[in-house]
């Protein structure tokens, strides 16, 4: 090993058709290399020779080699993650009601205000997963006014799986200064023409309402994606882009249940064919290098692993994971007694990542996967080979895609 440059242990070299591919584990970039470059790399790792100058420059740019060791990199990353955890904005997802009609009490809301005060945060983000907008609007208004009276800045987001909001409900979102609206749309809409027309009418209503207002929230429409509707979603996205410009953000999800984790798409993307479907949806050949691993990173870096993020359910339980909704034994804070409880639950979620799991230590996508879904214990072990296969499949079929 060179005394000056170190090879990152999360790099991976593998064969792809007639060429070789080098994956940069630190930055998530793929580059094709020649047989001679591969031999040079192997000899460098075995401390038999230095990297040639042109290859060294190329590899330094994507942090394949560095004057820092892998352990140095990981210490720096851990420090950055800890710093980000401690400085992150307090974020609370609120599920104020369940499908049986049970709704969170005003007493719990008062306690939630007290909890936020004790966190000593100047800014708090709330995301409200709602079924009945009228009931929830009163809760949002009450909580926002109480916190703002204490000089705390409140940002509210609404997540719903309805086809849109009425004009009256849109006025309420304006009055409440809701800054983020997300609509989760079930895949069945593509087989129901009347529902699809209703959705388009609602979008027209939303656009016309906000285009004349100074206040406009970020509006995202998340379509449930499957093997049969990816082209339909792409057509709709193009339609929205042509008609509304960047007013609506159109994206995809694998889960439209309000009470489930919205990041489950990561489980599907790790499959070869699903990866290609997502690639076709994005319609870009460089999607793999530019966005794919970043999507994996964002999918697996879940809210449960963030110190300043919580979920409050209709019983007033303060939880870390969506899979624990309705389970008092998984609550990490008692709003009635205003004290921390079940510290082992919070400790489990905050420490279950690829940095604490020795099995992940040498994995080439450790820095993107972050150890997988904590609740389902999804790890990257079965994922590394699929990266190779997906890359090969992409190169074989690249003429199939439109550029």
Can you tag this structure with a few keywords?
403 residues; alpha/beta; eight-stranded mixed sheet; 14 helices; three-stranded antiparallel sheet; disordered C terminus
Largest sheet: 8 strands, mixed
Strand order of the largest sheet: 11-10-9-8-7-6-12-13
From the alpha carbons, calculate the radius of gyration and give it in angstroms. 24 Å
Shape: globular
What is the beta-strand fraction? 15-25%
> Could you spell the SSE succession in H and E letters?
EEEEHHEHEHEHEHEHEHEHHHEEEEHHH
The helix fraction, in percent, is 40-55%
- The total beta strand count reads 15
Instruction: Give average pLDDT, whole number.
Output: 79
Kindly report how far apart the N and C termini lie: 42 Å
> Uncertain spans, ≥5 residues at pLDDT below 50?
264-276, 278-299, 397-403
Number of helical stretches of at least 4 residues: 14
Strand-pairing-aware structural class = alpha/beta
Task: Note down, in words, how this protein is organized.
- This protein is an alpha/beta fold.
- The chain has 14 helices and 15 strands.
- It has helices at 35-45, 53-61, 70-87, 106-118, 133-148, 167-175, 193-211, 230-244, 265-269, 272-282, 287-300, 343-351, 366-369, 384-397; strands at 6-7, 12-16, 19-24, 29-33, 65-66, 90-94, 123-130, 153-160, 178-185, 218-224, 248-253, 309-312, 318-319, 333-334, 339-340.
- The strands form four sheets. An eight-stranded mixed beta sheet has the order 11-10-9-8-7-6-12-13, covered by helices on one side.
- Strand 2 (12-16) and strand 3 (19-24) form a beta hairpin.
- Helix 4 (106-118) runs parallel beside helix 5 (133-148) and helix 10 (272-282) crosses helix 14.
- It is globular, with a radius of gyration of 24 Å.
- Residues 264-276, 278-299 and 397-403 have low confidence and may be disordered.
